[in-house]
Design a protein that fits this description.
Helix content is 43%, strand content 15%. It is an alpha/beta fold. The radius of gyration is 19 Å and the shape is globular. Bound molecules: guanosine-5'-diphosphate-beta-L-fucopyranose (GFB). Guanosine-5'-diphosphate-beta-L-fucopyranose (GFB) binds at residues 69-71, 73, 108, 110, 133-134, 137, 166, 179-181, 184-185, 202-204, 208, 210, 245, 268-271.
């Protein structure tokens, strides 16, 4: 990748897209193009086609998506399926039409079957039923992986798919109804401390296990795949270890400085019991996550304080 080549980062205002832009800039890439949602609606086929025809970037990072935590996925099922299918189909097809040969598509570890062996290898895709709370989102992301594979097979493009585990960090969504567990618990612990509360409400049983990756590590992995000229395939991006939601809550409480009791809310879903990724494929290429969970939570909390006030 030449530093002057044109790179389009789709979704640059989101947590992942903004981390990819930061990473590219820190490496000296100086021809990055972005469009806000207002400037370019990625669910609009014609607009996407015209934009890519005109710009003809050499590389695309497709980080634009409709995303959210377990509750948003479960209740906005049509939006998660429709918007993600449209964004992927429009961008990937128009990229091929415009002669863009290199693209990195971003998905999620929820594409894998709910009850597959752990840690989850890339080869387990489509070997069993999905977790129901995020099935529409997962189906859309599986379609994206298959679009990349199919355009590569039929047209010789070099489109790669990266599947991160649960991500967190700067520019995360802290809205309690649509967020993932990490930002939700950071915010709840912070507010509990400030309000002098005696307890922290945690959804579900606290027993599901999740793996958490700091988003700057994810961005590093994405740029690594492009820079190392990886031309096709599916790559799990994770840290290789997981924690229970209760352990996560206790670590967050410790970092934030809140010491009340935890109340588990059984009316909320647990979702998939475990989704630890096997990261051997990335490790064998020479990439490994750097940020320890506790350090990452401290970094995320300090960014939260900057953006949401003390
Ligand atoms: O992060 P999260 O919303 O999504 O929830 P998933 C993870 C676990 O944390 C679930 C529990 O067992 C939740 O019940 N949890 C505890 C909480 N307290 C809270 C809270 O206050 N808020 C939230 N949101 N959860 C998503 C998928 O699944 O993961 C997406 O729906 C995507 O498709 C994403 O793959 C990475 O890890 O269950």
């Amino acid at each position: 990748m030449l530093k002057s080549e044109k790179i389009y980062v789709a979704g640059h205002n989101g947590m992942v897209g903004s981390a990819i832009v930061r990473r590219l800039q820190s490496l000296g890439y100086d021809n990055i193009i972005v469009r806000s949602r207002r400037e370019l609606d990625l669910t609009n086929q014609m607009a996407v086609r015209e934009f890519l025809e005109q710009e003809k970037p050499s590389y695309i990072y497709l980080a634009a998506a409709k995303v959210g935590g377990i509750f948003a996925n479960d209740t906005k099922r049509a939006e998660f399926l429709y918007e993600n299918l449209m964004i992927e189909a429009n961008v990937i097809h128009a990229a091929w039409q415009a002669g863009v040969n290199r693209l990195l598509f971003l998905g999620s570890s929820c594409i894998y079957p709910r009850d597959c062996p752990q840690p989850i290898k890339e080869d387990y895709l489509l070997t069993g039923p999905l977790e129901s709370t995020n099935e529409p989102y997962a189906i859309a992301k599986i379609a994206g992986v298959k679009l990349c594979e199919s355009y590569n097979a039929q047209y010789g493009t070099q489109y790669v798919s990266a599947m991160p585990t649960n991500l967190y960090g700067p520019n995360d969504n802290y809205d309690l109804t649509s967020s993932h567990v990490m930002p939700a618990l950071i915010r709840k612990a912070h507010e509990a401390k400030n309000n002098g509360s005696v307890s922290l409400h945690v959804w579900g049983s606290g027993r599901p296990k999740r793996e958490f990756l700091y988003v700057d590590d994810m961005a590093e992995a994405c740029v690594f795949l492009m820079e190392n000229d990886v031309k096709e395939g599916l790559f799990n991006i994770g840290v290789g270890e997981d924690v229970t939601i209760e352990e996560l809550a206790r670590t967050i409480m410790d970092v934030v400085g809140f010491s009340g009791e935890i109340i588990f809310d059984a009316s909320k879903p647990d979702g998939t019991p475990r989704k630890l990724l096997n990261v051997d494929r990335m490790t064998s290429l020479g990439w490994k996550a750097k940020t320890d969970l506790r350090d990452g939570i401290a970094l995320a909390y300090s960014k939260f304080l900057e953006s949401h006030g003390h």
